[in-house]
Amino acid sequence: MSTKSLLVTCRIDIAGRAHDCQANSRHRINKGDVRLKVRNGLGWDHYCSECAKKIFAKDLAKIAQLEKLEPEVTE
Ligand SMILES: [Zn+2]
Fold first, then answer.
1. pLDDT tens across 15-71, in order?
2. What residue spans define the domains of the chain?
3. How far is the CA of 60 from the centre of ligand 1 (A)?
4. Ligand 1 mean position, distance from CA 11 (Å)
5. For labeling, which of 29, 39, 52, 74 is most exposed (least CB within 10 Å)?
6. Distance between CA 18 and CA 71 in Å, rounded?
7. What b/e sequence results for 48-70 when a residue is b if at least 16 CB atoms lie within 10 Å of its CB, and e otherwise?
């Protein structure tokens, strides 16, 4: 079956134990915190909600660009 979503590799879950955010080791994710989970090879990367918001903002801009259906000029 073909994939009809670009976002199959990410989801939101709740941290089962405390650990550092994978975008910034100074960000602590506590047990019970909501976090963004992104597929990375066979495993998952986990980001705090602050980093998740930044990632979403960046990807929303990217989707807005993709929506224009303008081919990228490649040399
Ligand atoms: Zn973070």
1. 999 999 999 999 999 999 999 999 999 999 999 999 999 999 999 999 999 999 999
2. 10-67
3. 18
4. 15
5. 74
6. 43
7. beebbeeeeeeeeeeeeeeeeee
CA of 10 from ligand 1 middle (Å) equals 15
Q: Ligand 1 centroid vs 27 CA: distance in angstroms? A: 5
Distance 3 CA to ligand 1 centre (A): 29
* pTM score: 0.82
Sequence-distant (≥ 6) Cβ neighbours of residue 8 within 8 angstroms: 39
